[in-house]
Design goal:
Strand content: over 45%
Low-confidence stretches: none
Number of strands: 11
Mean pLDDT: 96
Oligomer: single chain
Helix content: under 10%
Largest sheet: 7 strands, mixed
Structural class: mainly beta
């Protein structure tokens, strides 16, 4: 069982930056691929980025490529989402998720554990 708690959301102006953090409880954190997803008002939840258990493999949605960076610290059971050049369309609730595999995927169905989400609002 893995419990995930996100933090770091808030209100930022367009062009600004935020760093989201996700703290994971439980053992064998490095066995889990970790992903970030987001859900904007009135829209379905969508994939943002994911990293393999070791951090060696990383994938990004085209909409955030070049602006967002995922990283993880397996010694601290933490995963981060560094968001730069934020746009109003990045406004959403951001969720951290853990998959029962070291191989990262982009489908929500591959992720067994989810955090409660943290709100990110980008003003124009």
């Amino acid at each position: 069982q893995v419990q995930l708690v996100e933090s770091g959301g808030g209100l930022v102006q367009a062009g600004g930056s935020l760093r989201l953090s996700c703290a994971a409880s439980g053992r064998s954190f490095s066995f889990y691929a970790m992903g970030w997803f987001r859900q904007a008002p009135g829209k379905d939840r969508e994939f943002v980025t994911t990293t393999s258990g070791s951090g060696a493999y990383i994938y990004y949605a085209d909409s955030v490529k070049g602006r967002f960076t995922i990283s993880r610290d397996n010694a601290r059971n933490m995963v981060y989402l560094h968001m730069n050049s934020l746009k109003p369309e990045d406004t959403a609730v951001y969720y951290c998720a853990a998959a029962r595999t070291t191989v990262p995927g982009t489908s929500q169905s591959e992720y067994a554990y989810w955090g409660q989400g943290t709100q990110v609002t980008v003003s124009s």
